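FAQ: What does the model actually see?

It sees only this:
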Amino acid sequence: MKSNILILALFTLLFGCLSCKKEKTDDTNTADYQIETARSSTFIIKPDHTLWATGYNSYGMLGNGTNISQNALVKIMDNVSMVSTAKYSGRYTMILQKDNSLWTVGYNDDGQFGNGTTETETYSIIKVMDNVKNVSVGNNHTMIIKTDNTLWATGNNNNGKLGDGTITNRSSFVKVMENVKSVSAGVFHTLVLKTDNTLWASGYNGDGEFGDGTSIDKSSFIKIMDNVISMDAGVYYSVIIKTDNTLWSTGYNDYGQLGDGSENDRNTFIKVLDNVKIVKAGDNVTMIIKKDNTLWATGYNGYSQFGNGTTTDATIFTKVAENVKDVKTGNRHTIILKTDNTIWSTGGNSHGQLGDGTNTDRSTFVPMYIP
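And it is asked to produce this:
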């Protein structure tokens, strides 16, 4: 009897371990997709680290070797860990590979590639540098964080958005700050989050983008506040999440993109919502994901970027979807990643940026075809 019990126990232990191993393997197959949007294009990084793109491509910024736009995803590159593309002009793209090498493609008129040239454009993806772990592309300037947490900048420097103390354009990366955790390059201003959770800003501040109570531009980064865990630089406005998961906004507000119930500009941050874990600022539209994975939107909705079946703008956040774990919004369209790892899109689709095989605009979220 004792021997039978021992055999049964050993069998149970062995079977349990094999089950645990199988479960662990299955988990690795459900890794997240990554999503990114530009003015009229969309990029997807699949769990196997392949980069795919669709949409507007007149400057070659999709990286597929042509200047022909697409209405379905095409494979661009292997071994990719991150992609950032010009949010509002949509003219160039920066790609970060798993080995921390930085690559680029598209338009380079202001030196935004950071490779020492202002060569007009390239349809072929070219290598820029090594030892990079994060990149953020504005309209025509690029900000990177190296593996040693230093911040570097290149490209157009109108209003001092590079933060290097000048308003001189750069065609090669210059070091501007240390101890940086994340960076968001807007059209005319740049936001930085340091490793101590302090928020810093540089560039254009004419509409109160800094939230420091002034409208004075700065060519060097200035400290704005403490206790910030996330931020995004929109067109003439800024949104942040504090360590208590409260959402705050400042700047231009003609379409209600600040979400404070008004269309009044602000030059100091105003608290808008609680229980927020992700915020993304677009071109006068703001999307947030709450801690319960619900998606909410405010601001401009003229192309149905909200995905709620209307083209009605909002001045307060409106719930538009559930079970969402990531969101990116471009100039006229929005892409979401749901908790079941499916990708959905809505809004303007004249260049095929929704990736559904058509050029038909959508007023509600439709599934994107993933090859």
